Amino acid sequence: MSSRLLLRLVLLVQVLIACAIGAGAARAGAGPWQAAAIGLASVMLVRLAINANNFVMSWRVASPTPPEHQLGVVAALRMFGEEFGASMLASSWHMPRARPCMRIHPGCATPPVLLLHGYGCNSGYWAHLTRRLEAAGISHATLDLEPLTGDIDGFADAIEQGVARLRQQSGAQQVIVVAHSMGGLAARAWLRRHGSAHAAHVITLGTPHHGTCLAAFGIGINAAQMRRGGIDGPACAWLNELAAHENAATRARITSIYTHHDNIVAPQTSGHLIGARNVEMGGVGHVALGRNRRVLALVMAEIARVQTACPALLVVHGVA
Question: In the prediction, which pLDDT does 317 show?
Answer without folding.
Answer: 35
